[in-house]
Amino acid sequence: MEVVSMAAEIYASAAGTIAQIWILSELFPRKQSVKKVYIVGWILLNFCIAHFVLLPNIWQSLLGMGVMLLMSCIMLEGKTEQKMLVIIACNVFMILVSMLRGRITFFLSGKSINEISIQGSESLARVLGIVLTNTLYLLTAYILTCFFHDKIKLKKEEYIIIIIYYIIFLIVVLLSIAMSRNVDFSLIWQKTFLILDMLMFIANIIVLKMIFHINQQNHYEMENALLYMQITQQEKRIREEEKNYREVQLLRHDLKRYLVTYRQLLQEGKYEVIEADIDKILGKRLNTNHCVYTENTILNAVICEKMEQCSIKNIKIEVQVNADKDMDSIEYGVVLSNLLDNAIEAEEQEKEENRYICLNIGVEQNMIHLVVGNYISESVLQNNALLETSKKNKQLHGIGLRGVKEFVKNKKGEIEIFEENHMFVVHICACV
User: Fold this and answer.
1) Which positions are tagged coiled coil (predicted)?
2) Who contacts 330 (Cβ-Cβ below 8 Å, separation ≥6)?
């Protein structure tokens, strides 16, 4: 029984550690410099704290949480407050389950709370409870990562409220554990504590469900924002096409009058007047930079618009496009517009002689490869690994790249962001 009890304790420490790191690793992407072996080392470190460090339960829990937060900040991308929320929520859940397990084991075994709480206790009820509850941790981690398959999308105010709630909740459950183990309560009080533990556990489940609902609502808001950008870009393109069409119609209407007038002037030998009038027309009415880079009208409209902006801002741009005119390109037009807008904004901060953007679009075997690169005088990823906007209104201005990532995810594609030879490059590969 001693060996079985020891194995159960090892399983408990390992399962709790793996469950937390599993959830964190699914919610927050691993930093590029962090290898998988480092994650294994992280698991071993927190396992040792959970299994070998002999401290009072409260201090051991706080130490484990602190190390977990520190390692998650070193290993994973994302904001510290987001990771803190996840770690506190996981620990609250595990402590509540542990409290319930202790109460139930107390009633089943008849032994005292202190006795069944001692690590290494050979009580069969304790061993079974440990195995079942820690298996529940792993199952819960799997379920949560299925629901929260992407980074949690909560607003700043929501984070603050939820973090405060969970900190208070954590203090309450830790004090509850300390108080119940230091005082020998009667059976009626133990039943009361069991009911309170169950109520706190149910409240925790309800809060988690609310967080999931809020997360889903915020996800829909981002999708709606992306849809709004698509509609806005499409409306803008249609208006530009309509304007171009009217100009062509007007030009065709005036063409006959021009030809008749020029014929008369030629007969009169007034060549200078004709030349001056032609120069005027070329300078004002026909000075359009509407080149054809692809037969796909939507992509071509976006490229032409951005080419004109680059010309005004003295940005050199090179374009190479090989895209099917029949592909459904409205969403890709929005994505391309966002990426080029970001590149243009970045180049405005560079010296004029260094301003440069390259665009490459190709379609191969029903996959589109979209590459946008822009010159950088210093590393962007090193100074801003999460690519957060530096503008004051982050909620509005930060939506561009977030919308692109959301689009790529919905298309089951991949996005690669890297730097090479003083170029900041975004490479998107997705289904057409």
Assistant:
1) 224-251
2) 230, 234, 298
274 with 320, same domain: the answer is: no
Cβ–Cβ contacts within 10 Å for residue 303, how many? 24
More confident residue, 180 or 334: 334
Q: Are 49 and 71 in contact (CB under 8 A)?
A: no
Residue where one domain finishes, among candidates 181, 199, 226: 226
Report the pLDDT value the prediction gives residue 400, as an integer from 0 to 100.
Answer: 58
Number of domains in the chain: 3
Residue 423 structural domain: 297-431
Tokens of 173: 């459950």
Phi/psi at 117 (5° precision): -90, -10
* Cβ proximity of 372 and 339 under 8 Å: yes
Categorize the per-residue pLDDT at 426 as very low, low, confident or very high, splitting at 50, 70 and 90. very high
213 exposure class (CB count in 10 Å sphere: 0-12, 13-18, 19+): exposed
Residue 113, pLDDT above cutoff 60:
no
Write the pLDDT tens digit of every residue in 243-299.
766 776 676 667 777 778 888 888 888 888 877 877 776 654 444 455 667 777 778
pTM (two decimals):
0.47
CA angle 315, 320, 324 (to 5 degrees): 135
- Return the SS3 of 169: helix
Instruction: Sort residue 245 into left (φ over 0), alpha (ψ -120 to 50) or beta.
Output: alpha
What are the pLDDT digits (tens) for 124-173? Answer: 666 777 788 888 888 888 877 776 555 566 677 777 788 888 888 778 77
Would you call 411 exposed, middle or buried from its count of C-beta atoms within 10 A (0-12, 13-18, 19+)?
middle
On whether residue 290 sits in a domain, the answer given is: no
Please tell me whether residues 114 and 189 are part of one structural domain. Answer: yes
Compute the distance between CA of residue 9 and CA of residue 131 in angstroms, rounded to an integer.
9
DSSP string, 277-293: HHHHHHHHTS------S
DSSP string, 175-213: HHHHHHHHS---HHHHHHHHHHHHHHHHHHHHHHHHHHH
Alpha-carbon distance values, 44 to 32, 49, 88 (Å): 21, 9, 20
Q: For the chain, give the mean pLDDT.
A: 77
The residues near 121 (Cβ < 8 Å, ≥ 6 apart) are 5, 115
Q: How far is the C-alpha of 137 from the C-alpha of 93, rounded, in Å?
A: 9
